[in-house]
Protein 1
Amino acid sequence: MKLKNMLLGLLFSSFLINIKCLDDIESLVPKTPSKAPDYFCTWNLQGYCISNYNSVEMRKAMNEKNLLGPGEYQNWPGKLYPEIREDLTFLLDDSWDLAQDNNEKPKDFKNDELGNASLSITRFPSFNSGSNEDNLRALSNKIKSLGWRSLGLWVACQSPNSSGDFNTEHFAKRLKESNNAGVTYWKVDWGIKSRDEEFRTKLSTLAREVSPNVIIEHATFQDLGNPCPQFISISDVCRTYDVDNCIAQAQTIRRVVEILKYKVKEDYDGNTPKGIINCEDEPYIAVGLGCSIGVMRWGWAGRLPNGDINQAFPESGRDYNRRIDEVIRGIRWHRIAEPFGVDNDVQIGPNQEKDYWVKEKDIEGSRNKVTTDSLMFVSRRMNLPTISESYNNEQPRVLASKYPNGCYAVVTVGRQLEHTHVFKEVSVNIEVDNFENPIGIFGIYKQLTIKTNKKVTPSKCKVYAQDLKSLDSPNDITSKVSLEEDKLIIPGNVINEIGLALAKEGDKSDPGLVLLVKEK
């Protein structure tokens, strides 16, 4: 039996499935952490902990006391996401490298500390035992000792001088220090050179040369004038950038589709970037379109500590901070199938609809409407999904992707209309090459029909499904579904039952499960 286990483990290792024997599957969700470039970002949490989303005050909040202190809303890495810390980089956002009293965003970004990329000893006084590399290593080790995969850092897109022009010597030094200290991610954001492709290309090229363990993430700045989604072509990871959370899903899908139009190109040293899109805090969209995740919600739901409305994550709409389970499920999917780079193999449907949101007076001070057009059907590396019902403008969006390792994912995405989160059940149809590999199913359905090009013998098969929050044995749902030679039909209530099996009380996340059809 031991030899048989070893052989079967090798056979299915590309799909990360641990199978003990043909009828005894230990878990469809691997216990081994993902290697995907996913992270938790502190920016919105910086505002929450001080009950103030003014950017100056949020920068002040980036310090050792809030990061590691004993207070109720402090000790972030010690309290958040214990289930998936080992899958995530913990990323310190804006101002970790500025003096504690340097918090203004200067006109034209003229600030000689921006782009410094050296741990501020006035913000982190306990991490001041030696060189910048020593200090970063001590902080990195502290973060990893709390269970996180690694430490990541926000970096302004400029050199720390009046012009901001690329300073090779400066960045080579800082990148080497990060690499040696165990820092694995730089989120390169706004700055004097934020829209300068040459600057960003030089930084990525240099990083690959001197700091092979540090991923450089760039940003696209769509919807902000002078858009630059082409930055994906030079990026290992490229972020879709900030969105209005009240209509975040529609905005994010639109931005991802715009970036998918591009291909990667060689850098100055002839290296080809990975070209992975980071769609920030939308884990199910990331799953549906092969993207990485930049988590920004944290689970302390409701109003701010001082009683004010949480402007970053208001309870109206999707109530993000009561949707923590879907973050866990999305990150866990990356243990099965990792994000993949742009390759132009994308299909988009003919339909486009508006999501719109009338913001509440107590959030914005006046009633104003935010609107975004976005496509209704998108797929990567496979045919477009379809729905069986007559088309209407309140139906969910549907995303689907075939991953390079042969796995599939399908996602339905609800709508934001007027001042309501609308999620209508529809019958979704997708096509796959075969039933041999895991299939991720996310969202709400009337039913899901999966057609296959490779026929099976239903009497010789079992169908297993497992909540992606679970690391235990999957459920045998063979009797609850309809399996034919070339088709599997899964009722929506079964998707809800399995995909929410481990739902935390009060959590509003949509279902998320992994399914496998297995011959007996």
Protein 2
Amino acid sequence: MKKILLAAINARFSHSNLALLYLRGHVSDLPYEIEIAEYSINLDAESILRDIRERSPYAAAFSVYIWNTLIIKKIIARLNEEDPCLKIILGGPEVTFNAPYWLDVFPFITAIITGGGETGFRKLLMDDLSCRGEIIAAANPPFREISFPYRHEDFMKLANRYLYYESSRGCPFRCSYCLSSRQDHKLEFRDMDQVKEEIDFLVSHGPRLIKFVDRTFNASPGRCRDIWEYIIDSRSDAGTCFHFEIFPAFLTEDDFNILAKAPRGLFQFEMGIQSVHEETLRMINRYGAWEETAEKIRRILVPGNIHVHTDIIAGLPGEDIITFGKSFDAIYRLSAHHFQAGILKVLPGTEMRERAEEYGMEYDSAPPYAIIKNRWIGRNDMDMVKTAGEAVDKIHNTGKFQATLRGLEKLHASPFSIFTELARFTSKSGNDLHDLHEWKDIAGMILGYISHNFPERVPYAVDCLRWDWFTTTKDRRYPSLLAGEIISSGKKRLASLLQNRSFREKQREIGVQISFHELKRAKFFIAETGEFREEYARGMHYCLAIPGKELIFLGDF
């Protein structure tokens, strides 16, 4: 039996490829051995090639996206060079809208399947892959008729990975930068009984995260409420988090009432806002009044039971660096748990690509087609915004610099200015934020920035950084840039004070008791500045984190 290898090269190890599972299910009755192989772009091309060779397929089919285009080009060229008889099939968004280019550069390709792919792939296999250089565009059956993609045996390989699931395909919106906006991406739903049965199946395997990839999950409000209620009622104790992309303007009072019942950690929402300016939203065909959107996001955030992601896109038409900064500030100040400041990708097949010349857009010719400049934002400002977005990801999104960020807000006119100034400082220092991964390295960059621009605020900034380390890590030892004499001498002084009867009685009056043994194994913090003590330490000098106890604050003589 001929082996067809379905190959995915994912952006991260934790990701998986849902499309290949659908393809497998749609041809399971045909006389082929279907095998799935998943790799990561962090794996070198030679290792991937070696694995494919060892599997000895009759045909290799690749799912092509903006994140894996370059490595797939290398791999298919090498595969053809080593075995010209191997049939190579491509599909996915990166080949759907520029298939002639791929066939011109790689004439050995057997077929390119465009669109949804399930019917086209089946047609190709039924013809025994007898074509060469063919573009296959075949309409899929209704989404509810396409087989559920997962099987029990898949979950050995999917352990510790995200599980992707879609209860609908298509999108009701026509956002000009998005492939889902195309007229051929009509909105389709699976039957509710199907959805509930499939959720049960997925949850039974104990995944950490089930990510609904519906482009707008709450496009049908009543339907989304049914799913949320079903999950809350039957899955709240399963230990699985469910991720949804939602449009906040569609939320109603009924939604808020249901979502208020969700246990903490059960739901995670991603809300793409992109801009707060009506003219820009109009130019990209996106609906939404900002004040209404903001109020509904705040209502989601207030109970604290749902983890919220918000997004903004730099480089949209009609938005210059000033108005983008205002969008940035407005969305950032919602205080969502995760804030992504992304750069516009001018994707093939979108209206934005078709109007790029009209908007004066220059963008990378290679994936991910990131914008370089347009009529409203120049190259230098776009570079700065890109670096500022990386700073947001490194500092804000980790959740490990909250006190430090509040301290930085005191020194800047706006959140946008915090991250742009950090971006400029990093660039002038000859460093690259992209290369900073460790907490201590990011802290060192922040401290260097404050030392250079606000030297009188260094003691307070060090307090903020120490507090962030103290409250977000399990390590009792501070990084060398934060250790200092004040930590070691402060802990010795506290040990001495614990021997003083008056001190012990004073602490006992406020309900605090601590032994020498507990002090020895505790994480220790002492504030250097009175300003910080008043803000975070209840006016006390010392703070201890003892395993199994709440934070203990102690005064001084």
Protein 3
Amino acid sequence: MEKKQRLVWLGFVLCMLILIWRCFYSVNYADEPYCISSVWRFYKGDALLAQDWFPAQQLIAWIFSPLYWLFRVFSGSNDGIMLVFRLTYVAFQGVVSVFVYYRLKKYQYFRIPAVMLYLLSTQNNMLTLNYNTLGIGCILLILTILITEEKFAPPTLIGVGVLTAVMVLSQPYAILMFLLWGAAVIVAVPFKKKYQLHPLLKFRTFFFVGIGAFVVLVAFVTVVLMRADITEVLNGFQYLMSDPEHQMDLHYKVTKYFERFYRYYQYQIIVAGVCLVVGFLKNHRVVQYMKVMSFLLAIMAAIHTLISHGWLSDYVPIDFICVPMMFLGISIWALGKKKNILLFFGWMIPALIYTFCVQLTTNTGILAVSSACIVASAGGVLMIGETFKESKEELSKSVSQMILFMVIAVLLLQGALLLYHRICYTWWSSPVSECTEQLESGPAKGIYTSPEDAKWYYDTLEAVDSLQAETDEPILFLDLAPWLYLYTDAPVAAYSMWTIGEDNFLEEYYECYPEKEPAVVCWMGIENPEEAVAMQYFLENGYEFTEIDGGIALRKNK
């Protein structure tokens, strides 16, 4: 056992070294620095919900603010902040993985692939802390603690409540999970005298978890109201809920969730449905034959999904290959004679509900949903392990070995593909193989990128420097450039660091916060002033138009 444990730890250390190494390559200038810019904006003194009218990221800005504050204490600027957030995320994944590994001790060897699937995955292969990566880590910790807890002591449950609140701040619609849990506890009340209820269905458990969540809620509300009064918050909230990029029709969100799941995973969904039917039929020789065929079909469907999305397709493969073990776990669980109800209803169902909550929050649809399925896939591995353990005595040695061999083959294929894409796949950035030049200044300092990308990066910084903007005067970037806000380190003159589109609230924003009116307005990557968003508004308000390398700028007359 000691030798095997050493091998496990050796594998873990090697994976961590690879993930740390990968942090130094390829730069994403949009999604990745957006979360960091939200944290920086909070650090600069802006009020959550009141002065930021974009729904994503800002609720967790105050959670990451201690990390950012510590960084600024030692650096004094934002140079290298993207690399620091990357390394911190890898450390976060490592700590979560170690904790989950120890808590899942009773699942023996199957806990290893369950943990490794999480360790090797991340949405769009964006190697940074954000609301998606933090939310997935929290839901994995919550389910692990609740499934393995024996005493359900108040301190532990309060800790779960804290994690639940952080999860909800990361994915606001995840509050549905907490509400559904409360509903299940209420429904179980009439049965507590007749049946021995599981601690998860007892009011005491739910109550202490609620206390932990309430503590975080009070802290969050206090932080918000320390910088803005309730009128400002409500005013900002109405614009926040009007964001067209995230706030889509509920019917559209729900239908697309099921439609896209079926479009990308139809074979696994069909086979899982067959397994659920066959697995609950009365025991018969014909049924045994059907179970064997269903198992083989489930294995083939999982391999098909992994190869088609992880090997043949180049459409964000690292997200899609997070899913197969989820459906395979459900299929094998259904075919087993003894079914672990706790794992199904205590892990798989909540993990699936979480993916639905992600769908309600995200604007990237099936990509974010698929990456969130990694928690359900980890649960699928545990379900397979429990089913195999319970059915092993009824199977011959050769059949048992064959089943184990096929499952391990799928796990190795999924793990290999995840590791490959974690190293090689890039999201809106240069391929790793072309990243030969290390950036020496700015938010992306320390990261290697392609020579072409590095030239564009430095040219953009020089163009921004040519504006000679004061660091204490608000600046507005009209294009998708949150990293430029980090570079200038000047107050934000926008209700969002994301793209300011044609249908914007700039005029309303400056009416609410006249001190936010920009001293300089800049749009990089555009040559025709007529194409600039809100150009007419700024010209009418006395701004002077100037050209800069790679873009345009407007300066307010003093």
Protein 4
Amino acid sequence: MDVLRRPRLIVFLPAFILGLLSPLMCVALPPLWLAAGACLLAPLLWRRGFIARLLAALLAGAAWALAWHHLALGERLPAEFDQQTVVMQGRIAGLPQPTATGWRFQVADAHEVRSGTALPFMRVHWYGGEPVMQGEYWQFEARLRRPRGMSNPGTFDYEAWLYAQRIGALASIRGGERLDVPLAPGIDGMRGHVRERILLALDSHAGTERLLALIVGDRSVLTREDWLVLQATGTSHLMVISGLHVGLLAAAVFGLITLAGRIGLLRLSFPRLWLAAPLAILAAAIYAALAGFAVPTQRALLMVALVLLARVIYRQPGPWFFWLMALCLVVLFDPAAPLLAGFWLSFMAVGALIFGMAGRLSQQGMWWRWGRAQWVIFLGLWPWLLLWGMPGSLLAPLVNVVAIPWVSLLVVPAALLGTLLELTLEIPWLLWFAAEALNGLFLALQWAASWHVPRYLAFPGWTNWVLGLIGVMALTSPLARLLWLPALACLPVLLAAPQPRPPEGHMWVTVLDVGQGLSVLVQTREHALLYDAGARLSSGFDLGEAVVHPALVTLGVGSLDVMLLSHADNDHAGGAGAIASRMHVGRVIAGQLEDQAPALGAQACRPGEQWEWNGVVFEIIYSAPPPAPANERSCVLRVTAGPHSVLLTGDVGIRGEYQMLSRELGASLLLAPHHGSRTSSSYAFIRAVQPQWVVFSAGHANRFNHPHPNVVARYRELKVEPVYTSRAGAVRFVFGGRGSAHLEWGWRDSARRFWHE
């Protein structure tokens, strides 16, 4: 209340929010005693002038966030349980997601059975497991591990996502037994019950599972093809419980109660507003709970509550007050929320609307306002999509003009009312209508998506990004008619990502972190070669799509002159199709031609073939002919820049190594054959290569025990420096034509933040 009576306090909200955000930039979290010191200093500064009060607000926010992050890090899996198999008991939380290989779900309130030690909130995968339900208690045999993900430029930060979800452990289930314990009540139980009733009511209708995304926020029901269509049309926001839907529901409840009072259906001895506002907030809260209180719904719920509260106490702050207060409260309750793309896209979309529609609503008609709103959101979100490495769609403004009202005014009201009728009276016909309306929309979206493929663009650098953001703000501001020319001049810099290239006669070699697999990028001044493309996992997760392609775009590679697939093993060639479908590939060379996808148009690997790019020589030196085993048929490539060479060996084993000894093998950098398996890296081969570095491309704590300790010891004995992608993430080596050679960076250290393992 005091905030509304003293609107000057809004001036200090940005400083407080900045303080809450500041720890997220830390490589290592500052000690907790700094938070205590800031708490003591802030009240003293508040007694002084305006600048001192801004500093006090900043310190107060930083102190709160710092203490929160220390507490969150303390909830991670203890080191003694990392990579250990334990028997544990816990409760199924959230909505379990079926996968191609089993079930993925979250476990809360877990403890280790033998010692009784409490275990953190965890995300688990049960390969080939039984169906589980929210709220059930289970006993599992599970292998636990601390949160960890791959580390590459331009790719999704899985560890940041886990941290923002407060997930302190990952687990693989080996077996389980349901415990005879009553289902736990609460939000998860409510969501699970609603989900099962809807599935039961609509079991015979094709495509009805999509409706679950709009009713209970279950995004797992959407197929990969569905997401591709939504990305291509810029409508992904419609298929979750979005802030718009929460706001519309609250407005509908508020309006119905107000209307009922006006026409005499409600006779109250107090103002109708006092009843309408709490019930509207309650309805919005229940709907947000169905979504699991995702960040966009938190934002919408808080803004709805603040607006209605202001009306109840007869205050009318401006829209920026509600926006800032909602932003402040979300980050105050969860200082890790800004690590999620949804946080920024949700708040920036609303901020763009407030900024771009200010002073215009009373001047034009409804269709002009609706069309401008789509234009403002489309243009306003482009810088933020680039910041998060997300694809943009040129169709979005046109498609959303129709899709948003179709979903928000037709599908969602019918779905919510139909759910209420099904739960109370077992009448499913309105749910059927909502499902068919949604399926009809998807048919139209699929047609629209066939006209446009969304493009991933590299981050343009902070200077260009800020200039582009200024241009976007100018173009959507009330002064756009005066500023349109300089604004348009600023926009192209968003597409002008810096494209550094090696000098003539030099090469850059980047070994990507693709877990238990391989992908290496070799760049010269004007050309790029990709050696292997990572795996496509049985779950459907494609590292070519999710890791290799975004990394290539970020590293300035718009097309590949050659993609060389050492052999057909999935961990080397599984991601090739995704890459070829997303960028131009001039030529594909394969070590096992008969096993490669015909669509790739692969050519056979031919030992002795040689070519030169910008003074850098590429030579294929080995590939065993059939019927040799798959690993021995690996296509081995040697790349030479001046006095330095790189030897890329695939999965070749000791047999192939001995057959290569008659060739020139000397290299400064060796890619360890077969990920460091004990069936490779013989003494004779290492001595023939005499590398300065050896790179082991293998997954962290993988089940194959790669690289084998004896192999690592062998390299160390021969004075070769080992580099591990599982520890360093992606690594780049720079080789110059005049003798210079160095390891330029390991991405895990370059991009490290305190939540990274």
